[in-house]
LacI family transcriptional regulator (Fontibacillus solani), 686 residues
Amino acid sequence: MAGDEYELVTIYDIAKATGLSPTTVSKVFNQYSDVSEKTRRKILEASEQMGYIPNAQARTLTTKRSWTIGVLYIESSGAGLLHPYFGGVIEGFKKVATSKGYDLMFISKHIGGKKGGYLEHCKLRGIDGVVVVLPDYTDPYFKELLDSDIPCVLLDQESDLKSTISSNNMDGSKQAVDYLYGLGHRSIAHISGGTTYAGEQRLQGYLKAMEQLGLTVLPEHIIQGSYDYTVESGQKAMEQLLALEHLPTAVFVAGDNLAVGAMLAMKKHGLNVPEDMSIVGYDDIEMAKYLTPALTTIRQNTYALGSRAADMLICSIEGGSEARPQTDQIAVELVVRGSCREV
Amino acid sequence: MAGDEYELVTIYDIAKATGLSPTTVSKVFNQYSDVSEKTRRKILEASEQMGYIPNAQARTLTTKRSWTIGVLYIESSGAGLLHPYFGGVIEGFKKVATSKGYDLMFISKHIGGKKGGYLEHCKLRGIDGVVVVLPDYTDPYFKELLDSDIPCVLLDQESDLKSTISSNNMDGSKQAVDYLYGLGHRSIAHISGGTTYAGEQRLQGYLKAMEQLGLTVLPEHIIQGSYDYTVESGQKAMEQLLALEHLPTAVFVAGDNLAVGAMLAMKKHGLNVPEDMSIVGYDDIEMAKYLTPALTTIRQNTYALGSRAADMLICSIEGGSEARPQTDQIAVELVVRGSCREV
DNA sequence: TTGAAAGCGCTAACAC
DNA sequence: GTGTTAGCGCTTTCAA
């Protein structure tokens, strides 16, 4: 087998080499204070020289701490990793987790080549905690994990049992609507992100902002995009909107991918953005600024989302069961580009 | 500590419950054939009922196999996970690896919160093999890993020591150039991907294709884009090209991001694609089809790249040291859209 | 077909 | 400050 070739050096080897005991060696590598500076130095030196590297599994076996965090995200469809939101979040998460000594492992329903469940997978691997991004909410295996006592942090979800974190979706909607209002728009439609938590929040934020401004919302001006925030779904939603008798002058779209689709649909109908309709998106995906016209949108700070999530999760891992689930929100920001006009 | 609450069931527990020995229980979970059907059933039943889940670290400690594959990608810059190429590759890789019983863990230079190296990290975690995507080639820690005896598969790189896999970059260039030639173009420039392996290959493919068609390549028609394939870099490259006295009628760009930048630069100069210049990209990133005009490009099958990489890596993990490093290539495909015109 | 015993590499009481 | 001992949960000879 490959890997057999490692010259495995153990604490026993370095104990023997230094004439000390394995315990003392162990202590040195676990920052115990009751080791003389001289001994510590001697051990460190020998370890360095003999190429000693601790064995994580042996350590985990006795301590019950794997220093491993599971990453759970939707498995079906081509989404997942490819979704820019996911990438940004994990990037931020990884940075913080890594700096605190944790490694990241993907969690799936397949274990050892067989079908199992998320919880089973976590237990098998001795996972210390899980970060949940874009899960399949309807999955019973996912629910099983939520009901377990494994520390978790959930992104863009609600939960009493686990810590949660999301962007300030309501405020994002408010910023979008207020901005359009400031440009003179009074008839503002909404293409929503379907039945996801974030989608709901953005819809609620939109409704509330409209109300606060004293604007009426026509029921037919709220179009349900699909939960997966695809370009195709945005296209369909805009088609639906364009079929209406009374068109809005602006539309606030719950995701940039949806907005891209919406713009495509308009183009197909010979309509121009922003001349014929102003559009505000949500996310600020990379391509937003390269579209024609460049998309005005609400920027989510995915990196901050991820790093804050890591902080929260590690807090509940290390705080133990007495640590109550927390909830936090990250500020969003309007990025003005070229897809809206004054009316 | 959180997690302590698990009702840890061990093989001893189920041995006791069934009146059998731990050995026999272990055998059942390792598909040994010398267990009577009756015993097997009894053990499986008890395990199911008592909620037994094997302990991966204990298993690894004795077998020296962690069933864990390390994922190594560039840490600096905001790239990495956010890069669509990476996402696609890992998606495909994960699928295959998971189905064969392996889990994926990110490898970094930080270990236990301290700075270490990739190899050290792998040994600490008992990693069975590593998939390398977009590394920092100049990193000595990366070299250290390459020189080790840990099985690795490298994407878009050359190596005698490890298995490698890449798209058929040379052929991609040929397809692009041939296509432009077929449209009547004779003056075809190239914006290259810098000094990466893929970039070199695409450049070579371009040169060879031009030669085969009997076309001359003006030195100033080869512009070095930066190794990171950013939009900004593409912009700069096109600026450089546009400063030339004799403009080409078409340009083959080594990456879609670069192509996006190139198109932006043209627009800034009041030039239109494809009227003033035809452009062929490389990658087929998601946004390619949503650009104006939609980008004609060479599609890399990132998913296939990833799954094939997994096959190769697992082969060398399970084949042991006698398994020689392999090399493979994945076919690419021209996707015709709207960024080229006949001349 | 089944089981006893040793050991993987490490940590944690506890005694010295 | 240092060492002895036991044990984490599992697999693996080897013997029964």
In short: The radius of gyration of chain A is 26 Å. Chain A touches chain B through 69 residues (CB under 8 Å). The first helix of chain A runs from residue 11 to 18. Chain A has twelve helices and 14 strands.
